[in-house]
Specification:
binds S-adenosylmethionine; about 35% helix; alpha/beta; about 20% strand
Length: about 240
Amino acid sequence: MEIGPGDNFGVALLFLANGVSNVVAIDKFAPERDPTRQAAVYQALNSRHNLYQLFDGAPSEDAIKNLVYLPGMSAERYFGNAPPPFDAVISRAVLEHLDDPLAALDAMWAGLRPGGLLLHRIDLRDHGMFAGAHPLSFLTLSGWLYRAMTKEIGLPNRLLLPPYRAFVKARGWPARIGITRLAGVAGDFPALAWEQLPDDARRQSLAVVKEIRPRLAAPFRGMADQDLAIAGIVLVAEKPS
Ligand SMILES: C[S@@+](CC[C@H](N)C(=O)[O-])C[C@H]1O[C@@H](n2cnc3c(N)ncnc32)[C@H](O)[C@@H]1O
């Protein structure tokens, strides 16, 4: 299961190419697609990864074999209806858009077979709300103001690392959370622990946090510098067999 594939099925294709037998993709919103660009995307994926066998005919979105796509279907609605269990439930840059991602994680966990895997890449940045300003400016707005500004328009829920960490701990899930981004640092990392990140990157992001700390809104004031510096994570949890 991939939640929120967005513009194309590149992730699903790579799963199918690497031995997965069937993929279900659900997306709350179906983006408008430009057929010419889509064709170029599938041709490029195809020539890079040699995926001909995964298509019924010429490579295109509609010709992907063993993919079920449910546009207009939210994660909350899908998992709320007790679907048949999955081997893996994954997403990329989606959980930060959910109103209650922790409740959604509970529902996904229930929808995993024993031995199954949750794998979510979560982007904790401001999604360009304050482009050009301090990268943590969005954490200076009070809860009611932020909710009023972002209601129903898909901007991030501002759930940072600590609630995810506390949640998996409380559930007792065998989980690992790797860090993929730091505030104010360009580029991303391959899901590392804090201690494994480059020294200069850690220092730079901690300095970025210090700059804005006096202006932070209440829920963020009490957080450790390190937690505020973490701007992207991968959460992996395996359900015991
Ligand atoms: C930032 S895009 C990420 C798209 C793609 N995964 C990527 O990495 O480029 C967020 C995606 O999540 C989907 N989404 C947002 N809320 C959702 C929900 N509650 N259930 C399912 N999909 C959702 C959106 O429709 C959109 O396709």
